Amino acid sequence: MLSRRALLSLAALPLTAAEPVRLIAHRGGIVDEQHVENSAASLNDAIAAGYWMIEVDVRRTKDGEPILQHDDNFRRFYHQPYRVDELTWDEVRRFRGQPGNAEPLHFRELCQLCQGKVRLMLDLKAYDWPPSFYENLADLLARHNLLDTAYLLGGRNATTLPLTRTAKASINAAGLAQALAAGEDVASRYYLFELASAITPETVALCRQARVPCVAAINTFRYTMAKRDEWEGPKQDAARLLALGVTHFQIDSRYGSLFAR
Fold first, then answer.
1. How far is 17 from 105, CA to CA, in rounded Å?
2. What is the pLDDT of residue 154?
3. DSSP H stretches of helix in 182-231
4. Pairing state between β 119-124 and 53-60
5. Phi first, then psi: what are they for 54, rounded to 5°?
6. Buried b (16+ CB within 10 A) or exposed e, 222-235
7. Given this model, what pLDDT does residue 19 score?
8. What is the dihedral of CA 200, 203, 204, 210, to 10 degrees?
């Protein structure tokens, strides 16, 4: 590991090129009063808006089908009291969410909509599903040319999954430092994922040393939990990290105006 002084010197180096800002849309795309999160409409509008990647939430139905759904139940948006794991896909697909009369989205449909247009970040909501479930996800991604560029959330919990044979898994700064010290091939296995408020100049320098992308998360609920203003907090963090050369941001779509694209 480099010393703190060396890391700070590395963080101060200019970028080798004028790198574009790469935005990752949180919870399936554009989410506002017209869009249900993780829906086809929110996804398509994020693609049209030029997002580099879409983060989606994946759950498993009673009959083993992968669907997009953040919560473990359908109370929000669909106003149904059921848990995801107590319904079959045939039952789930009949729901309609508001606003927009949105239909739940199957993972297969997601891949079809994204092929050739945008990359995917997957937030898998469990790591104890049958191995065949993860193999199916990997197969669907590969079939639609999405596996090699996919990012997985979940840290080292995700590194044993079939998807991480080629997809990258998230890691925090402490984990990245440990992986480097252990001699892991971090550049091919990981991307750094931290809250924007937690990323320091040393974090940025560590990512440059390891040659891994540094992804900063700017999500409203995190600022609410930290009792920071939900607009001023993201504005301050975005400006600070852009000045440090960070180019990858996972954001709630409401914060898109903070970044020039």
1. 38
2. 82
3. 186-189, 201-210, 220-225
4. parallel
5. -120, 130
6. bbeeeeeebeebbe
7. 83
8. 180
| Separation CA 193–CA 199 (nearest Å) | 9
**Model pLDDT for residues 55-92, shown as the tens digit of each residue:** 999 999 999 999 999 999 999 999 999 999 999 999 99
Q: How far is CA 256 from the centre of its chain?
A: 15
Instruction: Report pLDDT digits (tens) over 202-261.
Output: 999 999 999 999 999 999 999 999 999 999 999 999 999 999 999 999 999 999 999 975
Label residue 16 by pLDDT band (50, 70, 90): very low
CA-angle at 88, arms to 86 and 94, nearest 5°:
110
- Between helices 131-143 and 107-114, what is the axis angle to 10°? 20
Residue with tokens 């990359």: 119
Residue the block writes with tokens 């848990």: 83
Burial of 109 (0-12, 13-18, 19+ CB in 10 A): middle
CA–CA separation, 62 and 87 (whole Å): 5
**Is 0.90 surpassed by the pTM of this model?**
yes
Tokens of 202: 């040393």
